[in-house]
Amino acid sequence: MERIYTIPLRDVKQMPRNKRAQKAVRYIRRFLEKHMKSEDIIISGELNEKIWERGIEHIPSKIRVKAEKQDDGRVVASLVQ
């Protein structure tokens, strides 16, 4: 099963500046757990690099993610090109 989500990160921008990128990664993980019904979430390197691209304080306001659920229940999240 494969789905494309636009995940808003505006709630994460309310956090202290020096914790935003870590919170964004956790927020994406929780979002995908809820929507894909799986607790085993793997975030790809390119998605992680996109979040951290401008540093810890300046995360993107929203991000498009392709989530692919494999047969064993694992969800792989990658950046939409």
Give an overview in words.
There is one protein chain. The chain has a single domain, classed as Ribosomal Protein L31e, Chain: W (Roll), CATH 3.10.440. The protein is α+β, with helices and mostly antiparallel strands and 81 residues long. The protein is elongated, with a radius of gyration of 12 Å. 17% of the residues are buried. The protein has helices at residues 20-36, 45-52, and strands spanning 2-8, 41-43, 62-69, 75-79.
What features would you highlight for this structure?
alpha+beta; Ribosomal Protein L31e, Chain: W; 81 residues; elongated; single chain
Mean pLDDT: 96
Number of helices: 2
Spatial strand sequence of the major β-sheet: 1-3-4-2
- The CATH topology annotation reads as Ribosomal Protein L31e, Chain: W
Overall spatial form: elongated
Q: What summary fits the major beta sheet? A: 4 strands, mixed
Task: Give a quick rundown of the structure.
With 81 residues, the chain is of the alpha+beta class.
Layout: helices, strands, pairs:
Elements: E1 2-8, H1 20-36, E2 41-43, H2 45-52, E3 62-69, E4 75-79
Parallel strand pairs: 2-4
Antiparallel strand pairs: 1-3, 3-4
